[in-house]
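Notebook entry, structure prediction.
Reason for the run: the old model in the group folder had no record of what sequence produced it. Starting over properly, with the input documented here first.
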Amino acid sequence: MPDRQIAVSTGQYRIFLATKSNSFSTTRIYMQAPMQGDKFLLTDVDISAGKVKHLFSCASCDYFNLTPIAGTVKGIKVANTNSSAEKWLLDARIVVAAEKSKVPVDTIHIKQYFNLAAK
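New structure, fully documented this time:
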């Protein structure tokens, strides 16, 4: 099985991470968004270019790797009511297919607030 680690490098973008875990597995979605502006939109082209990554890990599961192939990720910065870190609302619909395939097998929906860890 190929190494599924994701290398993060410095640049003019934010990385949003959505995680879902249970007693035996963990799913992570990484979304790379532009740094400038108060809102952004990632489209099919951005997702195909690798700006959205899907990682699934399970020590005892029989599964195949899924790759994002289409969808949208919309983000909007929420107004701060105090001096807390930036807060964003993301609304995502991510279509995934088996690795090296373009046939959709599932759709992941995310609607979640994110507080940025650093400014």
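Summary: The beta strands are 13-21, 25-34, 39-42, 52-58, 66-78, 87-98, 104-115.
The old model has been moved to the deprecated folder.
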